[in-house]
Amino acid sequence: MLNKEVTVLVPAYNEEDKIGDTISSLQQLEDVNEIIVINDGSTDKTVNIVKEFKDIKLIDLKINQGKGEALNQGLSEIKGQIISLIDADLGKTALELRKLLKPVLQQEVDMTIAKFPAPKKKGGFGLVTTLARVGLKIFTGLQFDSPLSGQRVLTKNLISYLNGFESGFGVEVGMTIKTIKGGFKVKEVPVNMSHQETGRDWMGFKHRGRQFKDVLTVFLSQIQGGK
């Protein structure tokens, strides 16, 4: 296994309920050398909780800028050769990161993607996931079970090639397309991670509507010869 430092980027927006358990779990992983939390304009106690932990680098954005831009802010501070992207609401299941790290540390692939178990709660109608899955099949020729999974591990070489992330919720499909087209190897890895699931209420549909728009924007940019 390669002796390379691992940096974990954790974008967080109003995650006071889970951020503490997420950080505690990440700190238990021997392979993790650096944890950077990017507070994306939270209005709750997220920042205060992060500050209670030692050896955590905090980037405190005063205005919410979206997941993609939050991650881009974190890239300017990384020291590791292996970069992990972890959502702040994983809680204790963040320990499952070890499964994503292994194939990259062993140089089997350039990026791993967490394949989540089936959701326990009925969310939307699968429109965003279907859009992402079909779009990735069209633009990469590959089938992905978890096309929107934000839990990933990448080499710094791949990070440099990507040259930043897409804005908003298009970050995952954007990086997947660029990674495959660049000739890098990708692998989905089954994990027992879980996070906050959106339901069939107004906030849930609003969230998925933003996801749908951002994912569609990425695919349209591909058609128009964009990134």
Description:
With 227 residues, this protein is α/β, with parallel strands linked by helices. It has one domain: Spore Coat Polysaccharide Biosynthesis Protein SpsA, Chain A, CATH 3.90.550.10. Helix content is 38%, strand content 18%. The protein is built from eight helices and seven strands. A seven-stranded mixed sheet has the order 3-2-1-4-6-5-7, sandwiched between helices. Helix 5 packs parallel to helix 7 and helix 5 packs parallel to helix 8 (202-223). The longest helix has 22 residues, at 202-223. 42% of the residues are buried. The model has no long low-confidence stretch (mean pLDDT 90).
Helix-strand layout with pairing:
Layout: E1 6-12, H1 19-27, E2 32-40, H2 46-51, E3 56-61, H3 67-75, E4 82-85, H4 97-105, E5 111-115, H5 127-140, E6 152-155, H6 156-162, H7 171-181, E7 186-190, H8 202-223
Parallel strand pairs: 1-2, 1-4, 2-3, 5-7
Antiparallel strand pairs: 4-6, 5-6
Helix pairs in contact: 5-7, 5-8
Number of structurally distinct domains = 1
Radius of gyration computed on alpha carbons: 16 Å
The number of helical runs is 8
**CATH T-level topology:** Spore Coat Polysaccharide Biosynthesis Protein SpsA, Chain A
Name of the level-1 CATH class? Alpha Beta
Overall form = globular
